[in-house]
Amino acid sequence: METKRTIFPNKGLPYLLVAPQLIITFIFFIWPASQAVKSSFERQDPFGMSTQFVGLTHYLRLFQDPYYLASIGRTALFAVAVTAISMGFALVLAVAVSRLIRSAQAYTTLLVWPYAVSPVVAGILWWFLFNSATGILPFVLRYFGVNWNANLNGDHAMILIIVAASWKQISYNFLFFVAGMQSVPHSLTEAAAIDGAGPWKRFWTIVFPLLSPTTFFLFIVNVNYVMFDTFGIVAATTEGGPNQATNILVYKVYSDGFIGLNIGSSSAQSVVLMLFVILLTFVQFRYVERRVQY
């Protein structure tokens, strides 16, 4: 069978078609990233009037700073908790919706709505719910002997931003899990049911292994979400407090650079954060992807 190939007479047309995306990538990613790398090797006054090359000084000071090292630990805890909670709840909801026949579309629409909420709005919403003076959740927790106050208790503040960030991301994960479960052939689950396998066994032996590509993709997306897109939640709720308890890496870049006016250290932190994400993504593709069944 002869295959037909489309040949463009204008050799520059392909480059012209991708030019808008390349220009946007250069202006909004490559150029700012290069400027951050450049600033991380310099010391400059807060107004940017004079700069001095200092080499690796900012990087060396970062890993000697106990506050920065503590921020790395807080970010790791935050990332693990948000990823596990958002993906776990999304999978449970996707399984529940997949069992519905008539009302599945309505439930899916309702569960997707939170994804349209911006991180700042999500943070403010949960801040009101957890507000120690006017929030309904602290009022309920008092009946269980919990004196909730995220303004004074660092553990409470961390729980607040974990809940807000997880709630914001559940809808995104839910969409992909639902799509992944719909792509699982019904003939496989029906054959397992005929052989006597119950719903629980059918899910863990057939459905969940076939969801591994979706799970792997969402794992990478969620880690990147926690590292970068949760800034608005922290800024709208705790502002890194109390006593640096929620000052995760992405917010520390902002607080040191824009509030503390330490541009060099802030730039070094942004470079280190970017390297952390790149390294983590490499490890995921190098080792975790081996368990993915395509």
Automatic annotation (TrEMBL):
Species in which this protein is naturally found: Devosia honganensis
InterPro entries named among the record's database cross-references: MetI-like, MetI-like_sf, UgpAE/MalFG_permease
Primary residence: membrane
Membrane topology value: Multi-pass membrane protein
Regions that span the bilayer: 12-31, 76-98, 110-129, 157-181, 202-221, 268-288
Pfam families: BPD_transp_1
Assembly and binders: The complex is composed of two ATP-binding proteins (UgpC), two transmembrane proteins (UgpA and UgpE) and a solute-binding protein (UgpB).
Keyword Transmembrane helix: yes
Domain ABC transmembrane type-1: 72-284
Assigned protein family: Belongs to the binding-protein-dependent transport system permease family.
Localization terms from the record: Cell inner membrane; Cell membrane
Domain of life: Bacteria
Its job: Part of the ABC transporter complex UgpBAEC involved in sn-glycerol-3-phosphate (G3P) import. Probably responsible for the translocation of the substrate across the membrane.
SUPFAM superfamilies in the record: MetI-like (SSF161098)
NCBIfam families recorded: PRK10561.1 (NF007852)
Keywords linked to the UniProt accession: Cell inner membrane, Cell membrane, Membrane, Transmembrane, Transmembrane helix, Transport
Annotated protein name in UniProt: sn-glycerol-3-phosphate transport system permease protein UgpA
